[in-house]
Amino acid sequence: MRHGTGEYTRWSIAIAVVFVAAMFPVLWIVSLSFKTPATVGDGRLIPKKWTFDNYKGLFSGGFDSPLLRPLINSILIALIATVIAVALASLAAYAIARLDFPGKALVLGGALAVSMFPPISVVGPLFDMWRTLGLYDTYPGLIIPYLTFALPLAIYILVAFFREIPWDLEEAAQVDGATPFQAFRRIIFPLAAPGVFTAAILVFIFAWNDFVFAISLTSSNASRTVPAAIAFFTGESQFTSPTGNIAAAAVLVTVPIIVFVLIFQRRIVAGLTAGAVKG
């Protein structure tokens, strides 16, 4: 089927409109982050007077600064949740794909349903439970809820990849003397690497972007992550709003994720597409 010049033109215009609409809020936040308090409300996209004070203010004071400790918390909590989720999801997905047991489809469907569950619905019970168990305002107090929602999604993605791996390879490895775990670790797991990488990225982004759990299950910078910490930014007085600092923090939190996704976009799309087709 051949496409005419007019159709290409319409598609190009549509893509350009969508791109501008998507990027405008990002550009506006970037613009606010470089404006002075006096010009932050002037309505100009390009700052009349550029300043880096909003970024410097985020890190002034070292570990007592508004952003440094929450940024470290975000990185560590997201990485720990990702490593645990990928490790557990790989074993669970392998078992679901490899073993034949009653209710397997129900288990897989339940995993997908749990991953779509609204987090706000469990915040109340978790708040009381965490305070009783001493998990409130701690790393595990955030990592566990993240695993609750991210782990089922990772399992669902990885099952599709494990199902498409020829099991003759595993049997051949065992014939050569490998144990079942060695065959999984050396043969099956590397072949499922695209799916594992896709699952890891999605889990990391979920943990990095979370606001509901971070704002509800923390009370100090001991474990508070960046999205929640931004909500506690204050101005120099009750009559000033830290708009520039909030915009600068938003840029610092968002840009790494955007760069990360752009670098690995092919692998992410390939992993999601393969999982969808093969599932």
Explain this structure:
Keywords: Cell membrane, Membrane, Transmembrane, Transmembrane helix, Transport. It holds the Pfam family BPD_transp_1. The chain crosses the membrane at residues 12-34, 71-94, 106-127, 139-162, 187-208, 246-264. It is found in: Cell membrane. InterPro entries: BP-dep_ABC_trans_perm (IPR050901), MetI-like (IPR000515), MetI-like_sf (IPR035906). This protein is mainly alpha-helical. The protein folds into 2 domains: 5-55, no CATH class; 66-232, MetI-like fold (Orthogonal Bundle). It contains 13 helices and no strands. Helix 2 (53-59) crosses helix 12 and helix 4 (104-115) crosses helix 6 (139-163).
Instruction: Kindly provide the name of the CATH class of the largest domain.
Output: Mainly Alpha
Q: Report the mean per-residue pLDDT as an integer.
A: 84
CATH homologous superfamily of the largest domain? MetI-like
* Helix count from the secondary structure assignment: 13
Show unreliable segments.
none
Termini separation: 29 Å
As a whole number of angstroms, the C-alpha radius of gyration is 23 Å
At CATH's second level, what is the architecture of the largest domain?
Answer: Orthogonal Bundle
Short overview:
With 279 residues, the protein is an all-alpha fold. It folds into two domains: 5-55, no CATH class; 66-232, MetI-like (MetI-like fold), CATH 1.10.3720.
Question: What does the secondary structure layout of this molecule look like, with pairings?
Answer:
Blueprint: H1 5-33, H2 53-59, H3 68-98, H4 104-115, H5 120-133, H6 139-163, H7 167-175, H8 180-191, H9 193-209, H10 212-216, H11 226-230, H12 243-263, H13 265-278
Helix pairs in contact: 1-12, 2-12, 3-6, 3-9, 4-6, 6-9, 6-13, 7-8, 9-13
